[in-house]
Design a protein that fits this description.
Blueprint (H helix, E strand, L loop, with lengths): L3 E4 L14 H12 L3 E5 L10 H4 L5 E4 L4 E4 L2 E5 L4 H13 L3 E5 L4 E2 L9 H10 L3 E2 L12 E5 L5 H8 L3 E7 L2 E6 L4 H12 L6 E5 L5 H6 L2 E4 L5 H6 L2 E2 L7 H8 L4
Parallel strand pairs: 1-2, 1-12, 2-3, 7-8, 12-13, 13-14
Antiparallel strand pairs: 3-4, 4-5, 6-7, 6-9, 9-11, 10-11
Helix pairs in contact: 1-9
Length: about 260
C-alpha cells in the first residue's frame, strides 16, 4: 500500500552546516522507488527552500511555510496568502513593540536591511537570497507572503502576541525569535491538505521531525518519528524515536517501518 513520508529540513535532513547524510539521500530515493511518496515539510517559506543538493534528492512535493503552501510535482495545489492590509498592520504593530520583522513568501523574503545591520542571520539571508530578498519599505503593500518571523525584544513579547492573537499562532524558538503563522495553520495541517487533495488516508503518513515547530506534523501524521538529536518536546509527541540524524536516523526509521 502506498504511504507518504514528510520530512522536516533543519535538524532532520541536514545539520547546521547544511550537510546531508548519504544514508538519508539513499533512504528517500529508495522509499520512492518502492512506490511511496516523499515530501519536504518545512517551516521555511518556499522562497527559502532553494538548495540544489536538498532539492536534488528528489521529492514528490513540498509543504512549506508551516502548511501555508503545498506543491505536488510542478504544481502549486494550495497557497494561503496573507492580506496586505493585515501584513501592514502586523508590521506596524510588531515594530511598536521593538520587533524586527522578516516577511516570508513563495517568491521572495522581505527585510529592511537597516534593521539587521550586524545581525548574523540578516547577513546569512542577504548572502543566500540575492535578488530574492527585497525591502519591506520598497515593496510596501505589494508583498506576497504567507507568514513572517520576528527578531524580538523579550520585554514586549506577551503584549505584542496578545494584540495579534486573533490572526496568528506563534512558535517561539528562543527568547529573541518567533514565527507568526496564520491562525489554524501548521505543518500538520499541510499534511492533512496533501491527503485531502490526493485522496489519501492520513493514517498512511509518516512525519519526521526534531523540534517544537514539528509538533503539529508529528501528532497529525499516522506515525510521528522524532530524530534522536531532537528536542524532548518532539520526542514526547512522536510515536517512535529513531537514531540521531548523523547516525543514519532516517534510514533506520525507514527500515524499521518497512518503507525501504
Amino acid at each position: 500500500m502506498k504511504k507518504a513520508a514528510f520530512f522536516d529540513i533543519d535538524g532532520t535532513i541536514w545539520n547546521i552546516k547544511n550537510e546531508i547524510p548519504e544514508s538519508t539521500v539513499e533512504a528517500i530515493r529508495k522509499l520512492r522507488e518502492n512506490g511511496h511518496l516523499a515530501f519536504l515539510c518545512s517551516g521555511r517559506c518556499r522562497s527559502y527552500i532553494r538548495d540544489p543538493k536538498l532539492l536534488g534528492i528528489g521529492f514528490d512535493g513540498i509543504v512549506s511555510g508551516c502548511g501555508t503552501m503545498v506543491e505536488y510535482g510542478p504544481e502549486t495545489i494550495f497557497y494561503k496568502k496573507l492580506d496586505p492590509e493585515l501584513v501592514a498592520y502586523t508590521i506596524e504593530t510588531v515594530r511598536r513593540f521593538g520587533f524586527r520583522p522578516i516577511l516570508e513568501g513563495r517568491e521572495y523574503l522581505y527585510m529592511d536591511q537597516e534593521e539587521f545591520d550586524g545581525d548574523l542571520f540578516g547577513e546569512k539571508l542577504t548572502a543566500e537570497m540575492g535578488g530574492q530578498l527585497l525591502s519591506i519599505a520598497g515593496e510596501w503593500g505589494r508583498w506576497e507572503i504567507s507568514k513572517l518571523s520576528c527578531a524580538m525584544d523579550p520585554s514586549g513579547r506577551e503584549a505584542c502576541f496578545q494584540e495579534l492573537e486573533e490572526y496568528y499562532e506563534y512558535m517561539v524558538h528562543n527568547p529573541y525569535v518567533a514565527e507568526f503563522v496564520p491562525k489554524g495553520y501548521h505543518k500538520g495541517t499541510g499534511i492533512a491538505k496533501v491527503c485531502e487533495l490526493l485522496g489519501m488516508d492520513i493514517s498512511d503518513t509518516y512525519a519526521f521531525g526534531d523540534s517544537a515547530n514539528d509538533l503539529g506534523m508529528l501528532t497529525a501524521a499516522g506515525t510521528g518519528v522524532a530524530m534522536g538529536n531532537g528536542s524532548d518536546e518532539a520526542k514526547k509527541a512522536a510515536d517512535y524515536v529513531t537514531a540521531p540524524m548523523e547516525e543514519d536516523g532516517i534510514w533506520k526509521a525507514c527500515k524499521h517501518f518497512e518503507l525501504i
